[in-house]
Amino acid sequence: MAWLIIISSVIVVWVASLVKILHGSFSSSKDDFFSNGGTFNKTRRNVLLVVAHPDDESMFFSPTFSYLTSRGYNLHVLCLSIGDADGKGNIRKYELYLACAILKVPGQQVRCLDHAELQDGFGKVWSHDLLATIIEEEVAKHGIDLIITFDDYGVSGHCNHRDVHHGVRKLLHDTSQQDIEAWELVSTNLLRKYSGPVDIWLSYLCALRCSSGVTHCFINEHPRKSFLAMAQHSSQWVWFRKLFVALSSYTYVNTLRRID
Question: Where does the signal peptide begin and end (predicted)?
Fold first, then answer.
């Protein structure tokens, strides 16, 4: 009987959280994500999302896509490998463009690299200096104001995700352009990671506890797009990834933290 009550409670909370997402999104910040001295900045800003593999954008960052594109920000995507660990790199590169189209990013604003020193795989070490150089070129080319990427753990702990984070940090440390901001996607523990829409409450409360302007929580206003975007990665759309997208809190909410 106790187990039945627990399971019923979990289902009720899950459904209530999903209803909240679908019928009343909210943000943890009273200010717009981009601000200047606490004043709303109405200027259209250029944002660069930096990921390691095709499908990272759909599996982990779709709430951020939803927030940025719905508010008129100019989003660019830089994917630093074609994900060729299984020999499907060219297919996965094409799938990335299809997914970005679902996420409202034009194809000309998506770049996917196939660099000899940036090959997909566990144990493949990526040079932070090389990453910083490539990212800096992309920033200069498109007049980027802000970079978004993984945090030090990289959600899943994948070494390529973590190297991308350190590449961005290297750029911030070395660059002469002091006006560039960078934000990282906060990794959560295993329980929160697979709590689905329920994590919107915890993410919201955690963001509120942080100093203003340091952390922002974005609720996915269109979670169905996460499924549609990930489904474009047909070479990767196997049963356990379908389950991941359904259960993952990253489908429903992203918490971004400013990189100092």
Answer: none
Calpha distance 171→136 (Å, rounded): 7
Please give the tally of structural domains in the chain: 1
Q: Is 20 exposed, middle or buried (0-12, 13-18, 19+ CB in 10 A)?
A: middle
Q: Is 55 left (phi over 0), alpha (psi -120 to 50) or beta?
A: left
Which CATH number characterizes residue 161's domain?
3.40.50.10320
pLDDT tens digits, 173-223: 987 666 889 999 999 999 999 999 989 888 888 777 776 678 889 999 889
* Domain annotation covers residue 162: yes
Taking only the tens place, the pLDDT of each residue in 117-153 is 999 988 889 999 999 999 999 999 999 999 999 999 9
Using the predicted structure, report yes or no on whether residue 64 has a pLDDT greater than 70.
Answer: yes
Is residue 207 a contact partner of residue 216, using CB atoms and an 8 Å limit? yes
List the domain range (segments joined by +) for residue 98.
43-258
The answer to whether residue 22 sits within a structural domain is: no
